Structures are given as structure tokens and as C-alpha cells.
């Protein structure tokens, strides 16, 4: 049975990626034998997928400098709906393979990009932007470590002006960092192989994260006949827009493309522009805010509660709080320092009740999560800045009076 929510998610994703949505798409059976495919075939969209001809814009830094960013675009060939397979778990210690069929048959959305990227860094940046878009739309939680987003990277090398070389496919990459490493390794491996007079096999490979290299899985030289055939249990998928929707049609039984388009949320690119325009922060800072899950919302919450200017707030969040989070491998949602506590601390600093050095000390105490407020910590550790000139003069005089020998030496000197 076709899952309505999966169709809506695919249409929403296609619209967000500027795709043409096919009002009529078809389902097919792809036959092959594998242990994690109990039916012996996979339902897919081989002939006419649900969405085609889109584009994804992404940004990356030049030479690791956040201030120098370039925007590139990768074409989206198609988005298709499929049935997920199971999952093979290889136990090398016992020489066993276990099969987890919990997700077999669940709706899967596959997005195919054109070969418009030339290195691991570009591939990683594009997938990270796609991940943010999927999370914004609610199409997927897209947590790669939990298998909610997986990447198959097709890599080939060629001289400029010549046809593409034989490609290899690195399967089931489960981290953006590993994606960049796998692509770059495979590029260099193929260049070295061809340079030594060898040939590249059209094979499937896996990325070994411990060794930092790709290893062969199975070759594709004997091209497999998947015996594609129209899926007999699913009729063509028909979608509508405002113009084609029949007047007497039950709205609960159809999917209206225009209705979904009107309800698209602000995408990450738009959110970045708004952050820069509203708070006057640097464009590169807007990327960092959105790349860390929940950090943009945390920043805006702090800004609303503090008298400090946003440009200063961003410095404290990115330079201080974020370093604590990365040091302890936590997300901002797991941080013991809430937006309320940080805003309270920054207000003390803005009012010049404490120094910047003292504020860092207080932040370190807040990180311990002992339930104290910034003001309580300041008073306990006597970190207040003294504003009374007479009191300051008395302290200075007491120091001088208690160090008579040193004072004499300084005067004589």
C-alpha cells in the first residue's frame, strides 16, 4: 500500500529543490536476490519518477577560511520513491552475518545528483545542505549515524575534455566526514591506478573508516539483469495542482502540489539571509549557526533576553559555548548552560558588573550544571567589578601600606 505521507514528503522535497513534479509517475519492480530483501524484488520508480530536473545550491570555504565562501550548484537528476530493504550486520569475530528486517518495506526516498562535484569537500558541503533542507521540511530527521540518511558516492576520473572514466560506487556512507574522506581517497586511488598503467573496475566499494580507505565489495562487470517490470499492485501515482483538481474530488484522497508549495517553510538559505539582515552578523556566522543543530534558535533566544548587541552575543556563543559543546561532544540542546543562563551572564557583563575574564570564569562554573545562577556564582567567588572610587582608593592605599619596602625601592628606583 502506498504511504500518503511518503508521497507528500517527496513532493515537498522536490519543490524545495526546484524540481519538476510529474503529475503522473509509475512504479516498477526491480528483481534481485539478496539476504536483506525477503520479497526477492524492490518496488522503485525506474521509468517515470515523482520529480526530475532540480538543483541544489551549497556553499563552502576557500582554503578553510570562513570569510571566503563560494556558492556552487549541483543538478538534481531525479527523486524517486522506493521500498527500503533490510540491513545486513557483519560479525567478523564469529564469521556471521545477521539480517535486520525491521525497516524492510518502509518508504524510502532516493535523490540522484548529476556529476557536478569534483572533490570530497564539495560532496560533503552539498550533502550537509541537503540534510539541513530535509530536516527543515520534516521530510526526514536525516541523522546519518542512525541510518536515516545514507550516501552512495559514484566516483570517476578523466582528463579535461575527455569522456568520464569508469566509475566505482562507494556504498552506504553514514557520515559527512567519511563522505569527504571516501571521495578524496577514491579519486587518488583511481589516478594512481591509471598512472601505473592499470584499469578501473566498475565495482561496488565500501569505506573503511578505521583504515581511511575504500575496499572492494562486489564487481558490476557482468551487468546484472534486474528484470524491471511494471509493479502490478500499484497503479500510476496521479498528483494534481490547483488548475487540474476536479471540483467534485475529495481533498483527503488526492495530493495537491500547489497546496504543498504554499506551505513550504523557510529553507536554510533564506534563514541565513534573515539572520544576517536582522542581527547584522557576518554571513559565515550564519552558516555556523545553522550547521549546528538548534544553535540558531539558541542564539535568537539569548538575543531576546539580553541587552548585549547580537554581534557580541554571537562571539560568546561561537567562541566559548560552542568550544565546550564540541569538547564534550554535546549538542546545544544537551548543554547545561541554557539560553536564559547565558543571557543572564551577558547582561552582567554588559552592565559592567563583571569583567570579560570573570565572565569566562562564571561560564566555566555554569557548565558544571550545579544549578547556580550567574549572579550567585559572581558573589560566591567575589568577581564583581568595584565601581566605588573611594573603595578602590582604600584598597590601593592598604596594598601600599602593607608593602612599605617595595614602595621605597620603587620610589628610589
From TrEMBL:
<dbReference type="Pfam" id="PF02637">
    <property type="entry name" value="GatB_Yqey"/>
</dbReference>
<dbReference type="InterPro" id="IPR018027">
    <property type="entry name" value="Asn/Gln_amidotransferase"/>
</dbReference>
<keyword id="KW-0067">ATP-binding</keyword>
<keyword id="KW-0808">Transferase</keyword>
<keyword id="KW-0436">Ligase</keyword>
<keyword id="KW-0547">Nucleotide-binding</keyword>
<keyword id="KW-0648">Protein biosynthesis</keyword>
<dbReference type="Pfam" id="PF02934">
    <property type="entry name" value="GatB_N"/>
</dbReference>
<protein>
    <submittedName>
        <fullName>GATB amidotransferase</fullName>
    </submittedName>
</protein>
<dbReference type="InterPro" id="IPR004413">
    <property type="entry name" value="GatB"/>
</dbReference>
<dbReference type="InterPro" id="IPR006075">
    <property type="entry name" value="Asn/Gln-tRNA_Trfase_suB/E_cat"/>
</dbReference>
<dbReference type="GO" id="GO:0005524">
    <property type="term" value="F:ATP binding"/>
</dbReference>
<feature type="domain" description="Asn/Gln amidotransferase">
    <location>
        <begin position="297"/>
        <end position="412"/>
    </location>
</feature>
<dbReference type="InterPro" id="IPR003789">
    <property type="entry name" value="Asn/Gln_tRNA_amidoTrase-B-like"/>
</dbReference>
<dbReference type="GO" id="GO:0050567">
    <property type="term" value="F:glutaminyl-tRNA synthase (glutamine-hydrolyzing) activity"/>
</dbReference>
<dbReference type="GO" id="GO:0016740">
    <property type="term" value="F:transferase activity"/>
</dbReference>
<dbReference type="InterPro" id="IPR014746">
    <property type="entry name" value="Gln_synth/guanido_kin_cat_dom"/>
</dbReference>
<comment type="similarity">
    <text>Belongs to the GatB/GatE family. GatB subfamily.</text>
</comment>
<dbReference type="GO" id="GO:0070681">
    <property type="term" value="P:glutaminyl-tRNAGln biosynthesis via transamidation"/>
</dbReference>
<dbReference type="GO" id="GO:0005739">
    <property type="term" value="C:mitochondrion"/>
</dbReference>
<dbReference type="GO" id="GO:0030956">
    <property type="term" value="C:glutamyl-tRNA(Gln) amidotransferase complex"/>
</dbReference>
<dbReference type="InterPro" id="IPR017959">
    <property type="entry name" value="Asn/Gln-tRNA_amidoTrfase_suB/E"/>
</dbReference>
<dbReference type="GO" id="GO:0032543">
    <property type="term" value="P:mitochondrial translation"/>
</dbReference>
Amino acid at each position: 500500500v502506498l504511504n500518503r505521507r511518503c508521497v507528500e514528503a517527496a513532493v515537498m522535497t522536490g519543490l524545495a529543490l526546484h524540481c519538476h513534479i510529474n503529475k503522473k509517475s509509475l512504479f516498477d519492480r526491480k528483481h534481485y536476490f539478496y539476504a536483506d530483501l525477503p520479497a526477492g524484488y524492490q518496488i522503485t520508480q525506474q521509468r517515470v519518477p515523482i520529480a526530475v530536473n532540480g538543483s541544489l545550491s551549497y556553499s563552502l570555504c576557500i582554503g578553510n577560511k570562513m570569510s571566503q565562501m563560494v556558492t556552487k550548484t549541483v543538478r538534481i537528476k531525479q527523486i524517486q520513491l522506493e521500498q527500503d530493504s533490510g540491513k545486513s550486520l557483519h560479525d567478523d569475530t564469529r564469521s556471521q552475518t545477521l539480517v535486520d528486517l525491521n525497516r524492510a518495506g518502509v518508504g524510502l526516498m532516493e535523490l540522484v545528483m548529476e556529476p557536478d562535484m569534483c572533490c570530497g569537500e564539495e560532496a560533503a558541503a552539498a550533502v550537509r545542505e541537503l540534510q539541513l533542507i530535509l530536516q527543515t521540511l520534516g521530510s526526514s530527521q536525516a541523522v546519518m549515524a542512525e541510518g536515516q540518511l545514507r550516501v552512495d558516492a559514484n566516483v570517476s576520473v578523466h582528463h579535461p575534455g575527455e569522456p568520464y572514466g569508469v566509475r566505482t560506487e562507494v556504498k552506504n556512507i553514514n557520515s559527512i566526514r567519511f563522505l569527504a574522506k571516501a571521495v578524496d581517497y577514491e579519486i587518488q586511488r583511481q589516478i594512481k591506478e591509471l598512472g601505473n598503467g592499470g584499469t578501473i573496475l566498475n565495482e561496488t566499494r565500501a569505506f573503511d573508516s578505521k583504515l581511511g580507505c575504500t575496499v572492494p565489495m562486489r564487481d558490476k562487470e557482468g551487468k546484472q539483469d534486474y528484470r524491471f517490470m511494471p509493479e502490478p499492485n500499484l497503479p500510476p501515482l496521479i498528483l494534481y495542482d490547483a488548475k487540474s483538481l476536479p471540483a467534485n474530488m475529495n481533498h483527503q484522497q488526492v495530493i495537491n502540489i500547489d497546496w504543498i508549495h504554499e506551505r513550504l517553510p523557510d529553507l536554510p538559505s533564506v534563514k541565513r539571509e534573515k539572520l544576517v539582515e536582522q542581527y547584522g552578523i557576518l554571513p559565515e556566522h550564519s552558516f555556523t549557526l545553522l550547521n549546528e543543530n538548534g544553535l540558531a534558535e539558541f542564539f535568537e533566544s539569548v538575543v531576546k533576553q539580553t541587552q548585549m548587541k547580537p554581534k557580541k552575543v554571537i562571539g560568546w556563543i561561537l567562541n566559548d559555548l560552542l568550544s565546550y559543546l564540541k569538547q564534550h561532544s554535546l549538542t546545544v540542546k544537551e548543554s547545561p548552560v541554557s539560553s536564559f543562563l547565558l543571557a543572564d551572564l551577558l547582561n552582567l557583563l554588559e552592565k559592567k558588573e563583571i569583567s570579560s575574564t570573570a565572565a569566562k570564569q562564571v561560564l566555566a562554573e555554569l557548565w558544571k550544571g550545579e544549578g547556580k545562577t550567574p549572579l550567585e556564582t559572581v558573589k560566591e567567588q567575589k568577581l564583581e567589578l568595584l565601581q566605588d572610587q573611594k573603595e578602590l582608593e582604600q584598597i590601593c592605599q592598604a596594598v601600599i601600606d602593607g608593602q612599605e619596602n617595595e614602595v621605597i625601592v620603587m620610589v628610589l628606583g
